[in-house]
Specification:
- With about 200 residues, the chain is of the alpha/beta class.
- It is built from six helices and nine strands.
- The protein is globular and about 50 Å long.
């Protein structure tokens, strides 16, 4: 299964997928292309160093979200992408984009959804005083982190945690969970019925 990874930042989750590929842990999944909307971002450099096809689409050069997403779809189709992985991609996708990849767009989020969607999830968890946080891989829908949940990993909050320390511990689990989910989807072990996702 050809995977397209979209990113906006440093690309550590992309790096986790690259490393999993090198270890033979992505099964039939392969990273066909990496696309970024921030020229020169870390994810772009990581992909280039790994010899993966890349493309840059700066959203600021498009008149509308729909126009940007249409260009994204066209470029991903050129790379024959079948599964889209959002790895720190800081853009909300339009219904037109999601319709092009039905139940084939996944996102990694640093919280146990449905708790603490959106940005600064770790700070939200700390401010709320929860005892357990974690990360979630979910299918993307038209809402903000509201799509059907595929898999989650819990991370306890420790005395003295701040946003940076909690984020770092959650990130370790993100780097384990995301490749495992991508492999499960590529192997046909993930099915969706309504909001219920089954992983065999």
């Amino acid at each position: 299964m050809n995977v397209g990874v979209l990113a906006s930042g440093g690309g550590t989750n992309l790096q986790a997928l690259i490393a999993a590929t090198a270890r033979g842990e992505l099964g039939p999944a392969r990273i066909a292309a990496v696309g970024v909307n921030v020229p020169g971002c870390g994810a772009l450099l990581r992909a280039e160093q790994a010899g993966i096809a890349t493309f840059v689409l700066d959203h600021k050069t498009f008149a509308s979200r729909e126009g940007f997403d249409a260009a994204l779809v066209e470029t991903l189709h050129e790379h024959r992408v079948e599964l889209v992985v959002l790895a720190g991609f800081m853009r909300l996708l339009t219904p037109g984009f999601l319709a092009a990849f039905p139940h084939r767009v996944v996102n990694i989020h640093p919280a146990l959804l449905p708790a603490f969607p959106g940005t600064h999830a770790q700070k939200q968890a700390l401010d709320y005083g929860v005892k357990v946080s974690g990360c979630t891989v979910h299918f993307v829908d038209s809402g903000t982190d509201t799509g059907p949940i595929i898999a989650q990993t819990a991370v306890p909050l420790l005395d003295g945690d701040d946003e940076a320390s909690l984020a770092a511990r959650i990130l370790v689990e993100e780097h384990r969970l995301l490749p495992a989910v991508v492999r499960a989807i590529a192997e046909g072990r993930v099915s969706v019925e309504g909001r219920r996702v089954t992983v065999r």
